[in-house]
Amino acid sequence: MPKNTSVAAHLRRLLELLASGAPAEDFGTVATEARRGGVGGDDLAEIEQATQAALRVHGALRQHQRREAELTALFDTAGDLAALRDLDAVLRSIVRRARMLLGTDTAYLTLPDEEAGDTFMRVTDGSVSELFQNLRLQLGEGLGGLVAQTARPYATPDYRTDQRFHHTRSIDAGVLDEGLVAILGVPLLLGSGSGGKVIGALFAADRTPRTFSPDEVALLCSLANHAAIAIDTAKAMTDARVALAELAEANAVIRERSAAMQRAEESHDRLSDLVLRGGDVADVAAAVADLLEGDVTVFDAGGWPLTPTAHGAGGAGGSAPAGTSGTDAPKGFVGTDGTGGTGGTDDAAALVRAAEESRATAHAVVHDGRWVCAVLAGQEMLGSLVLSGRPDLDGPDRRLFERSSVVTSLLLLLRRSVAEAENRVRGDLITDLLTAPDRDPAGLVARGRNLGIDLNRPHLVLVASTDADVRERLAGAAVQYLFGGDGVSAEHAGTVMLVPASGATPGEAAGAAAEQLTHLVGAPVTVAGAGPAAGPRALADAHAEAARCLQALKVLGRRGAGGSAGELGFLGVLLGEDHDVDGFVKATLGPLLEYDDRRGTQLVRTLAAYFGCGGSLTRAKEELHVHINTVVQRLDRVQAILGPDWNSPENALELQLALRLRLLSLG
After folding, report:
1. What does 187-255 look like in DSSP terms, one character per residue?
2. N or C terminus: fewer CB in 10 A for the chain?
3. What is the maximum alpha-carbon separation in the chain?
4. How many CB atoms lie within 10 A of CB 574?
5. Rounded to the nearest 5 degrees, what angle is found at the Cα of 64, between the Cα atoms of 62 and 69?
C-alpha cells in the first residue's frame, strides 16, 4: 500500500472485515500492511488499537451467532417435545443437535436398565463401532458411571490417560474401538437440587484431544434437560396409555359382570318361575338350552336319556317347534351329539365317567366336545346335564349351566319321591291284578284309572329276574328304568313285573329292558316279554306267559338277555297262551311252501319223507318213487332256501315239529 495511504483507509478495511464476517486472523493483516506502508508513530498505534477493538467486536458477534444457533436448537428441541410422538425420534434429534452444535465427532445418550442394574447405550450419532454401541456400564464405572453417580457434568481432554475415572476392560475396549479421546458427559436430571434424580447421561466426544469450554458444557446440559423432559413426558404418556387401557379393560369387565349378573338374575327368575309353575325336567332342559343357545339333554345316573334333546337358538338342531323340546332320544342309546343314536353302553359308560369327574371337581367338564355337569343330591349321583353346541362356554354361562344342575336335581328328587309313592300304590294294584284278576275286574280297572293306568288299553308285560344276591336292587332299578314315563313296576314271586308306557314288540321291549336293567343293577338281568294285552284277565295271562318264557330263557342259557315266546320257535308255541300253531308252521316252512306253490315242486313232501325215513336217502327215494339223485337235488334246494344249517339238531327238530303240525292241520 502506498505510503500516503491514510489511516482512515486502514480503519475502513477493519470495518469491511467485520461486515464480511472474515476470520479473526484476517484482522491482524491490517496492522501489518499499515506498518509496511510506512505508517508509524501514533497512527500505527491507533490502527493497532482499532484492530483490537475490531477483534473484540468480532468475538462478540461470533458469540451472539453461536448463542443464536444454540437458542434455535433449543427452541427446535422444545418444539419436538411439544409434538412428541416417538421418544426414540426425539432422543435421536437431541443427540444429533448436540453433535452438530459442539462440533464433535460423535454424541450419544445412555439410560439405566433397572432390571439389569446397569446402564446401556440408548441412542448414538456418528458412532462406527458396534462394540461401543452395545457397551454397558455399571454405576461408578468410566466417565458415564461417574456422571450418573455424582449427578454432575464431567469432561476429559484425553479419556485414556485420565485417572479420575474407574477404568474397566470392557469400557476401555469400547472407547478404543470407537477411537474416542476427548469426552464431555452431563447428567439427565429430573427435578433440581438434592431432590433431583439422574435418569441417564448425554455425551459429546471427539477422536482428538480437546478441551470443552464452559459454554459447551452449559449447552450440553440444556440439551440434556430437554432429553430428561422428553423421557419423563414419554414415560408419563406411556403410563397414561397403560392406565387408560387398564381403565377401559376394567370398564369392560364391569360391564361384562353387570351383564352377567343381570343375565344370571333373569335366568334365576326364569328357572324359579318354571319350577313354581310345576315345570318338568324337560322344561328345565328347554329353558337352559334357550338361555345358553345350545343343545341340552338330561341323563340318568346310568347315562341314559331322561329327556329329549332340547335345542336352543344356537344349537345344532336349531329351534324346536312350539310345544316340543326337540328330537326324541330313544331310551338306552346315547349318540355322540347328545341327541340319541347307536352309541349304546359304551357311550353311556363314557358319559358316566365324565359325570363322575364333574362330581369330583364340583364343576362342569368337557367330554368329547360337550359340557357335562353332574346332577347331585348330596353325594348321590342322580344324573347329568349335557350341553353341546357351545365349545366356548365362558365363565358366566358356565356358572349358569352349573346352577341349572341344582334346579334339575330338585326336580329329579321331587319326581323320584312322587314316583316311589305312586309305584307303591300301583304295586298293590299289580299284585291284586296278578293274584285275583277275576274277583273284581271293574274295580281293578277303576283303581288303575285313578292311578293314571288304563288297564283296558293294550299294554306290554315284562317280567325280569336276576341273581339272588342282587335281587333287592332290581326293584329300584325298575323304578329308575321307568322313571320319566307312565309305566309301572312291582315285585311278584321273586321277580319284577314291568308295564312300560310303550314299546314296539314284546321281544324288542324285553331286549332294551334287559340291557339297561343289567347296567343299573350291575349284574345280568333276564327279561321276558308278552302282550300286548288289555283288561285284567288278559294282562294276568300275559304275565303268566312272560313268566314261562323267562324260565325258558334261563333253561336255554340266555342269562342277561331279553326275549319273548314268539322268538323262541317251537318253545314259543308250547309256552304261549294262544298256541299259535299256524304262525309257527308258516314261520318254519313258509319259504318251502311258497317255493312249491310257485314252481310246482315237492320240496315239503321230500323233506317229510327224508325225516320220516330217519335221514336215509335210499329209503326216501323208494318212498317218493324217484331216483336218488332227485332226492339229493331237492334237499340241495332246501338247503339253498333255508340255509346251510337246516339239518342241525335244533333246526331239524323244529322242521319235523312243523311238518307234523301241518299234517295234523290238513287232517
Report:
1. EEEESSGGG-EEEEEEEEEESS-----HHHHHHHHHHHHHHHHHHHHHHHHHHHHHHHHHHHHHHHHHH
2. C
3. 179
4. 14
5. 95
The 10 Å Cβ neighbour count of residue 282 is 21
Q: Rounded to an integer, what distance in angstroms lies between the CA atom of residue 401 and that of residue 393?
A: 9
Using CA atoms, how far residue 509 sits from 330, 473, 531, 537, in Å, is: 12, 20, 11, 21
205 vs 66, 166, 219, CA distance in Å? 19, 18, 14
Kindly give the pairing relationship between strand 365-367 and strand 182-190: unpaired
Q: Has residue 317 got a pLDDT over 70?
A: no
Report pLDDT digits (tens) over 544-574: 888 877 877 776 677 888 888 777 655 554 5
pLDDT at 191 over 80: no
Map residue 13 onto helix, strand or coil. Answer: helix
Length of the chain counted residue by residue: 667
pTM exceeding 0.85: no
C-alpha grid cell, residue 621: 327215494
Q: How far apart are CA 110 and CA 202, in angstroms?
A: 7
Is there a contact between 507 and 528 (Cβ–Cβ < 8 Å)? no
| SS3 track for 85-149 | CCHHHHHHHHHHHHHHHHCCCEEEEEEEECCCCEEEEEEEECCCCHHHHCCEECCCCHHHHHHHH
Q: Are 370 and 295 in contact (CB under 8 A)?
A: no
